[in-house]
Specification:
alpha/beta, 6-stranded mixed beta sheet, 14 strands, globular
Length: about 500
């Protein structure tokens, strides 16, 4: 019973560190609790306790799903929690778990960000630290490095607590235990020291170079939250953004409209909405990037961002690559649709056609990286943009369907992480919030509220140069995670009775 309550408490602590709550130290405390919960436990117990912690972490921080489907919310929380549960099977029950835990949590997160359906990077460990002192570690290795650092501090805290507890019990055996006590400092000091070194290296690394300045306007048309595309008048949404664009101060170089606020049944240049966009770009004498949904028949549609040049001509275009499963397309539709009782075909009647081009558009103001909505949750999409020359990252999005502000807050946190990883400005534009300017240091310099009609306007820098995180991706940190798990397994094997290791019997003490 006590163990179950401890699992729930640890999971809730991690959840409370997530946006929109943002109490970031609680993530470290939660992983320290998980470390202690695994001490001296058998395989089945480690699986169960890891799953309970994962479920208590993910159910509150994905609560918005309940508004779409209660059964889907219950299933999703259980499945997402299972990533951590399975990972805990790899954690030795003895002191070596302090080394293993950062590695296995990082591995579990990386798998969750990748499968199924391209990954589900919601309520992630890095999001909890996007506004915290640890955030600059993302410059070295993105979310995976930040996950390792966060959990390492939790494991170090657990190791120090365990050492203090052991010393308290062994005051009468000081002479005999002195050597063991000194050795017991090696792991926590090593973990904390490694995090400190990572922060230092991130602080002194060369930064990207500014190669130009751009005056940017982000347009938020406003309107109610918690709406559905099937019941929304798309003409009204378009009109709101035209109206909001009248608030733009000139001169301006780049105007960014959100995702899918332009809905058309025919190619954009041939319809009224296309002509209105051309006229707006000419009137402002600015490059306009607008989010468009274009019907491709009864079963498919395209979701793309298109450049409109200052002379009104339509230029480059990027079609969304990382689609939202069960939001923009339905995997295994022929099986899933009957099981949903018709809800899937009602709310997702068409599937988005997946794009295949690099995540950039060429424009009169430079090479712009484009991460449409959901794509900003995936660091690989930002890395793709940088490898193709992106000088600024745009995140046109549409959060108007979501209940509460959990998703929108987590998206801002993701924009902060992408800014740190790439050393670029990230410009987030949403029809009903949140729209934001995020600087290369990961700072949110300006942000709208929910549902307001507003234009954010600021001069930003176009930047050139690759960061360590963008150049090498997560792979060196994947190697480190695997090395930690392997080292822990070796140490645990040496500590078994008869193995001669210094840690023999410590697992049993941790279980008391």
């Amino acid at each position: 019973m006590a163990g179950g309550l401890g699992c729930v408490a640890s999971g809730l602590a991690i959840a409370a560190a997530m946006p929109p709550w943002g109490w970031w130290p609680l993530a470290i405390a939660g992983f320290a609790g998980l470390d202690r919960l695994l001490a001296g436990r058998g395989l089945a117990n480690r699986l169960l306790r890891g799953w309970l912690v994962g479920a208590a972490w993910l159910y509150p921080s994905t609560f918005w799903m309940l508004d779409f489907s209660a059964p889907a919310y219950l299933v999703a929380g259980a499945l997402l929690g299972a990533y951590l549960g399975v990972a805990c099977l790899l954690v030795p029950p003895g002191p070596a778990r302090h080394l293993a835990l950062p590695g296995v949590v990082a591995l579990a997160e990386l798998v969750r960000w990748s499968v199924p359906f391209g990954g589900v990077p919601l309520s992630t460990v890095p999001m909890s630290q996007a506004a915290a002192p640890l955030a600059p570690v993302a410059r070295l290795g993105g979310g995976l490095a930040l996950t390792l650092a966060t959990v390492a501090l939790g494991a170090a805290a657990a190791a120090l607590w365990e050492r203090a507890r052991r010393e308290g019990r062994g005051r009468g055996r000081r002479g005999r235990d002195r050597g063991r006590g000194t050795a017991g400092l090696a792991v926590p000091v090593g973990l904390v020291g490694s995090v400190g070194v990572a922060l230092l290296v991130a602080a002194v690394l060369p930064r990207a170079e500014e190669v130009g300045r751009v005056e940017v306007a982000l347009v938020q048309g406003g309107g109610p939250q918690r709406t559905r595309a099937a019941t929304t008048d798309q003409g009204v949404v378009f009109a709101r953004h035209l109206d909001a664009s009248s608030l733009i101060r000139t001169p301006v170089d780049l105007v960014v409209w959100p995702e899918n606020v332009v809905n058309v049944d025919l190619p954009l240049p041939s319809v009224e909405e296309g002509r209105a966009l051309s006229e707006l770009a000419r009137r402002l004498d600015a490059t306009l990037v607008a989010g468009v949904v274009e019907s491709l028949g009864p079963d498919a549609f395209a979701n793309y961002s298109v450049v409109v040049d200052p002379d009104g001509a339509f230029g480059d275009r990027y079609d969304k690559v990382q689609r939202v499963p069960f939001g923009e397309y339905v995997p295994f539709r022929s099986v899933m649709a009957p099981l949903s009782g018709g809800l899937i075909d009602r709310y997702v009647p068409k599937d988005a056609v997946q794009g295949s081009s690099p995540a950039v558009v060429q424009s009169p103001v430079g090479t712009l990286g484009v991460l449409i909505s959901w794509e900003v949750f995936f660091e690989r999409r930002a890395r793709d943009a940088l490898t193709h020359g992106a000088e600024v990252l745009l995140n046109p999005t549409n959060g108007s369907s979501y209940w509460l502000t959990i998703v929108q807050s987590q998206q801002v946190a993701s924009s902060r992480l992408r800014a740190l990883e790439t050393d670029r400005w990230v410009l987030q534009a949403s029809p009903t919030g949140f729209s934001a300017f995020v600087g290369p240091d990961g700072d949110v310099l300006e942000r709208t509220g929910v549902s307001e009609q507003r234009v954010l306007q600021r001069t930003i820098g176009r930047r050139d140069g690759m960061t360590i995180a963008s150049r090498f991706g997560p792979w060196p940190w994947l190697g480190l995670a695997l090395a930690l798990v392997t080292a822990a397994k070796v140490l645990a094997a040496r500590s078994l009775p008869g193995g001669g290791g210094a840690g023999a019997g410590a697992g049993a003490e941790g279980a008391r």
